[in-house]
Specification:
8 helices, alpha/beta, single chain, binds fe (ii) ion, Purple Acid Phosphatase, chain A, domain 2
Length: 249
Amino acid sequence: MKIAVISDIHGNLLALEAVLEDLKNASPDLIVNLGDCVSGPLWPEETAAILRETDWPTVRGNHDRFLIEDPIEKMGPTDAFSAERLSDESMDWLRTTRATIRVSDDVFLCHGTPDDDNRYLTEKVDGPKGHLPDEETLLADIRSESAPVICCGHTHIPRVIHLSATGQTILNPGSVGLPSYEDDHPHRHKMEVGSPHARYAVMTRSGKDWNFQERILSYDWDAASLEADRNGRPGWARALKHGFYGPLS
Ligand SMILES: [Fe+2]
């Protein structure tokens, strides 16, 4: 069994196209999407048009939820940009996404933590940047979820974490479309993966164990950066081009 795990596309059509091309070589049995599909000052509708034609089990990210639940005037600029451009068909498709998905007895999918799409699982933020949480924190945050493999996104930082106490593995594939950002939840901080590549992961079962592979792909990030700049978002433009966010605003 081979599963491709993609997350946090954020409306970056060019990065998604690079992933789709790479998936032809990876030829997984299943592709799953951990959410934050279309929010971004890039190509939200064009990205949604591709995703809604797939049969990928898709988790609802916090930004997907904001697009569905909030009126435009209450949205931040990134979600508002996307909401103004999404077709009714794409909004209907977003409503089909689910808070969590159990793929099998082995594999559980969520966006943030198993019970909160807007909380980091694989990063702890107690300063201006995230870092690896300790095992006790991780065990507390997965609550009673006992699947051997828990896949999550939301932080945009790829990680594979093994929990010695339970034998579980947490996989975060990183972000297809946004390698760094700043955010003010729970307080002002930034996440930076340090390169502009599109990322996803492939996990393969071997007997009762799983092996994990990170896929790190070049694509035309200069064009994505230019599009963000054209849409009035210099922070996004810098993040897309470099994978570093730079100074917090
Ligand atoms: Fe995200």
